Amino acid sequence: MSTKVDQEQPKAPPGTDPRDRLLAEIPLTERRLELAGISTAVLEGGDGPPIILLHGPGEFGGKWMRVIPELVKSRRVIAPDLPAHGASENRDDRLDVGSMVAWLDALIGRTSPSPPALVGHVLGGALAARYAIEYGDRLSHLVLVDSLGLARFWPAPRFALTMLGFQARPSERSYERFMRQCSYDLEGLRQGMGGRWQPFVDYNLQMARSPNAKAVGRIMRRVGLPRISPEDLGRINVPVGLIWGRQDRANRLRVAETVSARHGWPLHVIDDCADDPARDRPEAFVGALNSMLE
After folding, report:
1. At what angle do helices 97-111 and 123-135 cross, to 10 degrees?
2. Per-residue pLDDT for 12 more than 50?
3. Core-most of 32, 33, 147, 150, by most CB within 10 Å?
């Protein structure tokens, strides 16, 4: 574990940079930590039991912006940018399952004085599950949100087509097509996010056009997409909960229902929601999360 001095990043006022504009409205402080040899951007704030939020592919820690204000009232919230995502360093030469688990272990060691609740969404869920298999005794809870890794990835055809189209040619048009598959009600989401919508779109496009986008794809292939065996999932010795959008077109609800029945993990299904409950139904997500943690 690195002993380098933490570098706290002052929160920038809203400006032309879409990341700065988004982070300016989040009640957390950004700092940079050296974790398992990877320079990592981390958002932190609040007091209480620690909770670590791991985002999905091509996203960043600020993607939890719609639930952070409520969570930070009673918990210490830690939301990193995964390696090669957002403002974190790309070390593609070492971003496999072992190094990603080591990175997460270093993050927990540096930010959580007591075992944290670990919440993972999509790619973050696959990483969180892999971590819990090896180090469940270092966690208080594991919550998987529309997570990869629990079954073969077999999205709906239109979801797959729009995803590939956006990856091939990131533009506002291809992003909107993709988001219509990722969201139950895109117009309602735009309205709910208000002035944050355009910088949110701009920063997602910026990340998709970044040279790191290829590394993100490789992390998905190495960490997110391979199925974790039921035997390995059965080794997890920490309380596990599942939160799922009923209309998820990527990791469909039957994945969660099968895993819930097999392992006895409680499943909370959120109606009128696709693959990102924290973004699309923040109040329902926080209610489900609190019920699992409390």
Report:
1. 80
2. no
3. 147
Average pLDDT over residues 186-204: 97
User: Per 3-state DSSP, what percentage of the chain is helix, strand, and coil (rounded to 5)?
Assistant: 45, 15, 35
* CA dist., res. 167 & res. 170, Å (int): 6
Antiparallel, parallel or unpaired: β 50-54 and 240-245: unpaired
Which pLDDT score is estimated for 255?
98
Give pTM, 2 decimals.
0.94
DSSP character for 150?
A: S
Q: What is the DSSP letter of 49?
A: S
Distances (CA, A) of 147 to 99, 144, 199, 212: 20, 6, 26, 22
| Tokens found for residue 286 | 């926080």
3-state secondary structure of 85: coil
CA distances from 129 to 86, 117, 209, 239 (A): 22, 12, 29, 12
